[in-house]
Structures are given as C-alpha cells and as structure tokens.
Amino acid sequence: MLDAVRHVVDNGVKWANLPADFPPFRRVHAFARRWQQEGLLVELHDRLRERVRVKEGRAVDPTAAIVDSQSVRAAANVPRSTSGWDGGKKVGGRKRHLVVDCLGLVLAVAVTAASVQDRDATVPLLARLREQHFSIRLVRADRHLCRETGQTRRSSRRLSGTIQHRVPRMPRSRSLARAVRVFG
C-alpha cells in the first residue's frame, strides 16, 4: 500500500492510473485517506526527518530554519478561488511557502493563491512552525520578505527567535531545492 501511495505522489499520476501490480486504486486511495485523517503520514514524515538528521550528525530537533516561497502555474482544472496572479513573477496559479531546516528537510508548508503576499502567509506559517518545533531559535529569510514589512520581523521574532536577512550560502541541492523537488 505504501509503495502504491509513493508511486502516485512521486509520478503525479491519477489514482485510477496505478499499474496493475499494485492493489486496486480505490483500496489504495481509501488507505491513504485514512492515514492522512489519522495523522499517520505526518508522523511518518516526522520520524523519517528525525532519522535523517541523526544520520547526518545533527540534533533531532532543529534550531534554525529557512523560509521562502515559490509561485507555480496552476493546472486548468484548479478552481479560481484557490489560484491567483503573482504580479512580481508574472505567474498565474498558486504559491507554496516552505520552511525547511539546514538540511532541506521540510518543517512546515502552506499553499496559497499566488496573489497572497509573502508577508501575509509567512506570519501564520511561522506561528505554526513555533507550535510544532519549539526548538527553533533562528529563521532565515531573503531580503525581500524581511523588507516587505517590519511588522513581520517583529512578530516573527516573538514567535520563533530572530529572522535574519541573509540566507547562508549553501549548495541548492542541500537546502530548499530538495524540498521543492519533493513537493514539486
């Protein structure tokens, strides 16, 4: 069942297009929905992240995070109520806001219409990050996000330590790019 769910997520195929060597798609979909409703997928993700952190020689709980967003085109069947126009990047669709640790492992994610400003989505995202990962002391963001509003910086400082303007230089394959590939 888990391999069938991974196949759908990894390849972006429809449930009905599962290969014949997997169980019937209705049964796989029912299991995946039940796992999601009971929080098992989140638990599996969190445990895998902890294992990767330990294997890399890091503490189980991260102390620093990186926040950024990416606008992506929406498919034609995406309702207009959940998509919008990002005037800065000239993209119509949705925007995904990611918070990752220094290894590029996802800590929190939010998907909004592309028309939603980064500052409006980042404050609730950081609040959720603080609830889930109380060990976070430092959040790094690009200069654009910090410059948009000083209020975001002040309120975020209270929520999750300090926001730094500069994102550290690190290979893209080890940071946000890894998380974007997972959700892309």
Describe the secondary-structure layout.
Layout (H helix, E strand, L loop, with lengths): L1 H10 L13 H13 L2 H16 L8 E10 L10 E3 L4 E10 L5 E8 L4 H15 L5 E4 L1 H6 L1 H11 L1 E3 L11 H8 L1
Parallel strand pairs: 1-5, 5-6
Antiparallel strand pairs: 1-3, 2-3, 3-4
Helix pairs in contact: 4-6
Would you report the number of β strands?
A: 6
Separation, N- and C-terminal Cα atoms? 22 Å
Mean pLDDT across all residues, rounded? Answer: 80
Structural class by SSE content:
alpha/beta
Would you identify the regions where 5 or more consecutive residues have pLDDT less than 50? 151-161, 165-175, 180-184
* Inertia-based shape: flat
Strand content: 15-25%
Radius of gyration: 18 Å
Order of helices and strands: HHHEEEEHEHHEH
State the helicity in percent bands.
Answer: 40-55%
Alpha plus pi helix count: 7
User: Biggest sheet, in brief?
Assistant: 6 strands, mixed
Q: What this model shows, in words?
A:
- By secondary structure, the protein is of the alpha/beta class.
- Helix content is 43%, strand content 21%.
- It has seven helices and six strands, in the order αααββββαβααβα.
- It has helices at 2-11, 25-37, 40-55, 118-132, 143-148, 150-160, 176-183, and strands spanning 64-73, 84-86, 91-100, 106-113, 138-141, 162-164.
- Strands 1, 2, 3, 4, 5 and 6 form a six-stranded mixed sheet that branches.
- A hairpin with a 5-residue loop joins β3 (91-100) and β4 (106-113).
- It is flat and about 50 Å long.
